[in-house]
Amino acid sequence: MEYDERLARFRQGHLNPFNKAEDEPRGDKDLLHNEMKPDSFKSEPRFHPTDRVMDLGLAEDHFSRPVGSFIASDIEHLKQAIEDCKRLILELPEHSEKQKDTVARLIHLRLKLQELKEPDEDEPNMRVLLEHRFYKEKSKSVKQTCDKCSTIIWGLIQTWYTCTGCSYRCHSKCLNTITKPCVRSKVSHQSEYELNICPESGLDSQDYRCAECRAPVSLRGIPNEARQCDYTGQYYCSNCHWNDMAVIPARVIHNWEFESRKVCRSSMRYLSLMMSRPVLKLKEINPLLFNFVEELVEIRKLRQDVLLMKPYFITCKEAMEARLLLQLQERQHFVENDEMYSLQDLIDISSGRLSSSLTEIHTTFAKHIKLDCERCQAKGFVCELCKEGDVLFPFDSHTSVCHDCSAVFHRDCYYDNSTTCPKCARMSERKQPVVPLVSRE
Q: pTM value?
């Protein structure tokens, strides 16, 4: 019986260490108790409530509250813990250390909640919706905004996608609710600008709804604020119009105005994709612009010279090896024609950047033809009207080119001489049929 009593007291003391009697007499019983305790129990750590760590995959107790603690082991508990942290952040003094620590705990809680709700291995890397090609982003530190719900994308705790065509960004949870097609498809099928300045038709023509998502809007802001896009002239809600700024092509062409205006999200993406596309034929849209903008006349002359230099480079082995024409690879249309302009070209002309860069390229091209390459020098011309002076090239500033045979003359000689072009005369003589001589017998 004495052994059984000692064994019972031993089990009671180790299984429930918090219920030890404080007034238990110390004597032989304690001595016997210590003698019967196995060595294995001596090395076993004792359990204390303060040693508890939250089951959140973390080694530290990041989530303990100032008073008491909570354990979030499932989604419901995590949601409750997040709400408690939000409430505590509002109660703590602003910019205090405790508030900063609580914000850090809130981020870790949201991270764990996202891992439980949306595991990364279940998310596909690529999805195709409404001609969008969405790819899952791997960046966790870049702060972005969802184009669908207009809320912040927390890359550290949320999965998000970006369209490679139009840069449309959204949460993974918003993918299936997208209604806007990819703007790049519009650029591919309709590569032209709206050339009327802010063609407004009024809210009544839109039935007082957003032109894109059809949400109710009004100028009073009830239920949603109506925001006008300066490019389309239509009104949009705050979810479709974020007050983005962009240069309007119609204002540039008609007024030579480059001030940025407020545009909706879809217009902003469309203008961004169309920025470098040469779709503006200024000679037809507004030919008077060349009379008032001197920079345009200068750029047009440089482009015409580049087109005259192109045949030299195509037939020159050294020029092909040096890849001189690739200096204009960002503006490929400059080596194809001198009439088409992109919106980026006009912006660079206004700022003066295009004039300096194109002049430098023009100098490099002329140096190769006139000084560096003997083959290109041999393709020069001699003025047949005065038969004097140096070798002439069609891109020289003091020369004129015959429109029919492309012969090159001094400008003064060409306009002062009222006779026809000597080369054209020789070519016409060669085309005349030869009349056989009839012998007289």
A: 0.64
